[in-house]
Amino acid sequence: MKVRTSVFATLILMSEVIGIALFLRGFFPVPIKSSLASKNSLSDLPAEPLSGSSPNTTRLPHPLFKRVVIMLVDALRDDFLFGPNGGTFMPYTRHVVERSSSYSFVAKARPPTVTMPRIKALTTGSIPGFIDVVMNLNSPALLEDNLIWQAKTAEKRIIFYGDDTWVRLFPKHFMEYDGTTSFFVSDYTEVDNNVTRHLDSTLKRDDWDILILHYLGLDHIGHISGPYSSLIQPKLMEMDDVLKKIHGALISKEAEGSLPYLLVLCGDHGMSETGSHGGSSEPEVNTPLVLISPAFKRKVGMEKPGVIEQVDLAPTLALGLGLPISQNSVGRVIPGVFQESSLRDQLRFLHLNGHQLNCLLKDSMPSYEKEAGFEQYRVAEKAHGNWMKLYFEGNTSEVLSNMGKKVLKQYLEALAALSSALSKQLGKYDMYSMIAGMVFVFQLLMILLLAMPEALSADAAVDLPVASALLSLPFYLLCLLLASVHVLVCTSATSSCYYCTLSWGLVFVVVAFSSAMFCILISMAVRRLSLGLKYNGKSPLKTNVSEWSLSELDVLLLAGTVGHTLSLAASSFIEEEHQTWYFLLNTLCLAMFQDVCRKYFREKSTSKDEEDCLLPSKDCWNSALPQPDASSEKWLALATPIFTLVCCRLLRSINQTGVQWAHLPDVGHWLNSSEHRTVLSLLTVFCLVLTYLLVQRRCSWVSKVALAFGLVGVYSYRAAVGNVIFPWQHSSRTMSKGTVEARFVYVFVLGILFSGTKDLLRSQIITADAKLKSRGLWEIYSGLVLLASLLFRAHNLPVLCCCLLIQTLISQFIWKKLHYDAAQITIMHYWFGQAFFYFQGNSNNIATIDISVGFVGLESYVEAPAIFLTALSTYAGPLLWTCHLVCYLSSERHRSPVSVGHGCYCLALLRSVPAAVYIVLVTVLRYHLFIWSVFSPKLLYESMHLLLTAGVCLFFITMEQSPRKS
């Protein structure tokens, strides 16, 4: 059965998406959950252990606290309080930590360090999965057992003010609440004032038991200007004043003989060196936890804060309020909180915590008896029973006290072991689905490889032996074998997998399709092998050896792409992937320099060749500049690769990225400091002017005027938000949101895009004018450049400017003069796009995503434009290079034949190789938790870029490779 090349490639890519989706379904971990559908209740709590014939008791310790106030400051790093500047940032809190009745800890949050998963961890004690990063945008109601539900069931009256994520997670749980939008990061003032305005009236009332305050201003400042901004100290002092007000109100209302209060100061996550969060660096996972209560001993000096897990707060608060611990909690109680209780109560608290962890261990691990914590808990429980027997016998000797302390230590060791075992089991990998998806993808890749010669032949069609494969005996035997394997796996597996939950009809379709692909693959391999032996031993492939010969540049491009693919097998190469692309880009520049030298100094071109070489440049650029003569053209061509190398080296110093060296100072930090604002302003003006000169040459006069006004609006926006200054502007002017200025730019962006789209549609519908079509594409490209200049931070405008300059010089003096084909140009665009992704300061870590750009020009949170602007800013580098590829190939197509060689199709194949190879290696190596934080956005980005690049390749393959006579 013959199918056209474009149809064949499209079907393969669509099938590949299905295979990758099946793998991802097994690759992302399923969080640990108890098998019990119900929630814990007081009636389910175990009795106190007691040995002998005496009846045991179900006595529960009395609650330790009457009221609890939880003050959660979003993105509060531990060094903001415990660091050397803690006394300046939060003086009252620091005094309480050093001299008052309190306990202070560094609470480690588990990645992903995003707000919604952290709230779930604080209230359930469980470790959320990475799928919660996506759900963070629209949090559903939390249905699993949690502290808030237990408190409401116990008729605790709960009041909440702050981030509306809590309201979505716990609907109808609060007696009173006032939620604020957490995603509008441009607001760091009103978002906290809306919380504080309720305090005075609430603290005077006695009709509540739990008060939760979630402040967002600090997190928003981090997203806007980073952890070293001048706005950080005033915001932390504001939070310090809030805590002082709460603490004073609680002290004044403390009644003699009643249960004490508990004031909790904590952060949900920290803040990276760039002000974002989501990854697993130390500043992101280390948060302060301060517990303040008159029930604790009074300190006499500053002590080094202990280190605990963030999930330990949930069981501590539950037992402190006399509530059951949540079923899915993997945390352990904080021992210091219960030190003032009797020894019997302390042992009872630890016993309840151990029982809950032990039950969760049994539910989540089939081989739980082999875990050290399980045996340790049994020993501690038995010793606890012996202690209880002596206690009830009235033994008051020192032996009882020493024995109790020994049991206490055994319990603590057992809790540590149980919590550690459960924390390591962050999810249950669905290996069967992973292997099925991996095999599926590799079958498709092999079929692509074997079909490539036919797909790129003169007929532009692929002959797939579908009928012979479906009617062959191996097909039916393979179907029977795979069906047997499926039955065997699904009936013997200790835990269910996604693939086993599918209906038998759907499974049979998948099995038949996979078997058919394997038989087609074998048939194509046999046919390809037999072709080499026909025609008296002369292979037909040898007749086209010139068509398939690879130049040095081809070898570099293919070897570099494959080398990058193989580098993804190591976690360090994922963390520091930018180094790989910097190396490949430098090597590519040297290879282009070698080709230029070979052309102008070693090869003798005929006058006709020289005429053909200069011909495309006559009409390609609608430039007001005079065309260079042959001599100057030669030297400009020689200088272009060297200039590109210099630009790339300078761009590397603007933003530190990756993981290991991201904390080091860079040029961006220097430019953003207040004392260098004048330098940044001059640099911004220079970059905007150069951007206009580079972009306007291909536009109509209307778009030129709109572009000029738009770039002026970009500078005005940056001045409004305080990044740059006008000559007449005072440097200490109060910053604004720049909403009017940003919307002014949006008007011109839409105008340019409308003008370009109109020209493009006219060229396709009304008149077949190739120049009009080319101008329309370039105008759309210039509109995207204007939008990117608005979204880029001021110090990143040189990245955009260098991107445009390199595109102009290389296309003018390298690609056209050296007659590179579309395949080579496509892969070069891909390399440059990847490198510029990292030049922007991005990395494979979620924390480097700048979500503040999603609110440029917005006065409130609107989901669709916020997501669009954030994605466009993050992937502006690859997007601009891909758009430039489409514009360049389209404009060159009607002037000179653009050779769409085998490289374009190779690229569509190679873009799917990284994901497939990475799948295999991750399956074997089973990386640690940190790799999740760098892999999850990486795979999404790679999949997106795969479809985008493959779409460009297929577009030009379809245009150029229509059936023709050989």
Protein described:
With 966 residues, the chain is mainly alpha-helical. It has 3 domains: 2-28 and 430-534, no CATH class; 69-335, Alkaline Phosphatase, subunit A; 552-895, no CATH class. Helix content is 59%, strand content 6%. It is globular. It starts with a strand and ends in a 6-residue tail after the last helix.
Shape: globular
Indicate the low-confidence ranges by residue numbers: 535-548, 605-626, 896-941, 957-966
Strands across the major sheet, in which order?
A: 5-4-6-2-7-8-3-9
Distance between the termini: 21 Å
The major pleated sheet works out as:
8 strands, mixed
Helix and strand composition category: mainly alpha
Gyration radius (Cα, Å) is 33 Å
**What is the helix tally?**
40
Helix fraction? 55-70%
Q: Please indicate the percent range of residues in DSSP E strands (runs of 2 or more).
A: 5-15%
* Number of structural units classed as domains: 3
Average pLDDT, rounded to a whole number, is 79
The total count of strands amounts to 10
GO molecular function, one term: CP2 mannose-ethanolamine phosphotransferase activity
Pathway: Glycolipid biosynthesis; glycosylphosphatidylinositol-anchor biosynthesis
Family: Belongs to the PIGG/PIGN/PIGO family. PIGG subfamily.
Subcellular location: Endoplasmic reticulum membrane
